[in-house]
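Justification of computing resources. Each target in the renewal requires a structure prediction run like the one illustrated here; the chain below, 295 residues long, is used simply to show the kind of job we budget for.
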Amino acid sequence: MHIGIMLQNYTMRGGAVQLAKNLAAAARGAEAAGLDNIWVLDHFLQIPPIGPAETDMLESYSVLGFMAAHTKRVRLGTLVTGVTYRHPGLLVKTATTLDVLSGGRAWFGIGAAWFEREHLALGVPFPPLGERFERLEETLQIALQMWSPDNGPYHGRHYQLQETLCVPQPLSKPRLPILIGGGGEKKTLRLVAQYADACNVPGDAATVAAKLEVLRGHCVRLGRDYEAIKKTANVHYQRDSGKLLAELASLAAVGVESAILTNVDPAEEQFFETLATRIVPQAAGFPSRPATAAR
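Resulting structure tokens:
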């Protein structure tokens, strides 16, 4: 099992003046600890229950570009970008830029969006859920076209592009890997089966196992290789290494290949040392198995 972290809270020691220094240290610490990836929250305002909307929040792709400059190996992505936040063509161009400047280390994390307050606050349209899923699917189609030799137009219900030109193309081959976040059984997991390289499913091991079985069913119906999709899940970080490792092992047993630690404080004393000496090496020995094997 691979281990990553998600940065969710930008209210750090020293305030805004020290944010750059703290984020650079977190990036270097994650890479030195042997982590596989660094993810950042993508929101305009801080979300509940992490903190009040008035607390610090940074624009995600700017953060990832900054962290790319302070790392050499670890992969970088948003967990996840709401489809409503940026026009698809500009979003794909932004993610591609991160991939090129990081040397091919970007993930394209995306979802249907949910936090209405931030949309209303900054004047960003927040369409009904059904329309957001339609826009999500069109955005995935646009991304795949922009990362292909086809530079022609795209005409969807919600988006029309006269040219899907994206130069330079990603350094990741054959393109940026796509991660779709969420566990919705009818729409989200169907989109994973049809378009994505990875899923991020919420819940405990039993919940994740059930969701992965649904994903498997979508793959069968669509003719997609279920094993080709990377299974990721979020795990609430806790200082008790034994309990944390037990939770990681339970997720690995139902097929999770990459665990992303949330609720982390990179400035916590011995945080990265604990990951490097205990969590990362032991989790690497957890064999992930298909969800059916856990029954």
